[in-house]
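Sequence only, no structure available. Ideas?
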Amino acid sequence: MTERFYLLKIQLQFIKPAIWRRFVVPADITLDRLHDVIQIVMGWEDCHLHEFTIGKKRYTEYPESPEDGLPCGKYRLGDLVRQKGSVFHYLLSTVV
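Reply:
I predicted one. Tokens follow.
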């Protein structure tokens, strides 16, 4: 069996000049581990809540109800993003 890998590019929105990183992850990475990788490649300190939006679904770290999203630790990137050129969103937010 051949292991699949994804070449991802992350780019910050609304920033000029563009700030971006390109990196490779295995297709079987869970979204919570992908969050950890993004934090490392961007040089961030993992001090914000986060969520992924893939298609019409939200995946979060601590969903308390289905309206809050789905648990990101239970879903693998390769099961959710299957087409080359797909775009999904990663959002960081602060707690007030």
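The chain has two helices and six strands.
Hope that gets you unstuck.
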